[in-house]
C-alpha cells in the first residue's frame, strides 16, 4: 500500500511509541511503500535538528539520523508537479495531501487528524488515519 507518513509519526517512532514504531518498521520491511517529497523531507530534517522533541528519546541524534536514512531508503521519491492546495487549517500540512495525490497514496498516517480532515478541497480516495487505525486496517 502506498502511504504518506507524517513527521509526527516518525518522531513518535524515535520516542518508542508502539504504533508509530510499528508503522515505520513495517515500511522499512517493505510491507508498505511510504512516499517522500521535497517538502516532507525538509520537514523531517528540520524536526530532527531540534533537541526539545527528543529529550525523552532512547535514540541519540546520530541514531535518529541513521533511522531516517534507513527509512528514506524504503521511500518512493515522488515529485509534485501540480499544487492542489486543499486549504487545510494549517497551511504547512497541505503538502501531505499533495504528496498523496501525486503518488496515488490511499492513506496519510498522522497524529494530526483534526487538521487533515478539515480540507476545503476533498479527495475521498485519500484517508487520514492514526498509526493505530492504520495498523488495524492493514494487518491481515
Question: Can you describe what's shown?
Answer:
- The protein starts with a strand and ends with a helix.
- A five-stranded parallel sheet has the order 3-2-1-4-5, with helices on both faces.
- Strand 4, helix 6 and strand 5 form a beta-alpha-beta unit.
- With 140 residues, it is of the alpha/beta class.
- It is built from seven helices and five strands; from the N terminus they run βααβααβαβαβα.
- The protein has one domain: 5'-nuclease (Rossmann fold), CATH 3.40.50.1010.
In the CATH hierarchy, the architecture is 3-Layer(aba) Sandwich
Count of separate DSSP helical elements: 7
Report the top-level CATH class: Alpha Beta
Q: What structural category arises from helix and sheet content? A: alpha/beta
CATH superfamily: 5'-nuclease
Amino acid at each position: 500500500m502506498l502511504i504518506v507518513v507524517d513527521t509526527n509519526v516518525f518522531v513518535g517512532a524515535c520516542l518508542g511509541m508502539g504504533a508509530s514504531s510499528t508503522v515505520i518498521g513495517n515500511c522499512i520491511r517493505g510491507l508498505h511503500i511510504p512516499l517522500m517529497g521535497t517538502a516532507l523531507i525538509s520537514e523531517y530534517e528540520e524536526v530532527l535538528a531540534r533537541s526539545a522533541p527528543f529529550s525523552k528519546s532512547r535514540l541519540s541524534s546520530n541514531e535518529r539520523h541513521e533511522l531516517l536514512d534507513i527509512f528514506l531508503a524504503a521511500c518512493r521519491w515522488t515529485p509534485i508537479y501540480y499544487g492542489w492546495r486543499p486549504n487545510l487549517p494549517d497551511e504547512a500540512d497541505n503538502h501531505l495531501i499533495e504528496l498523496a495525490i501525486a503518488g496515488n497514496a490511499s492513506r496519510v498516517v498522522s497524529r494530526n487528524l483534526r487538521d487533515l480532515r478539515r480540507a476545503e478541497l476533498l479527495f475521498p480516495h485519500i484517508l487520514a488515519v492514526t498509526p493505530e487505525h492504520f495498523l488495524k486496517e492493514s494487518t491481515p
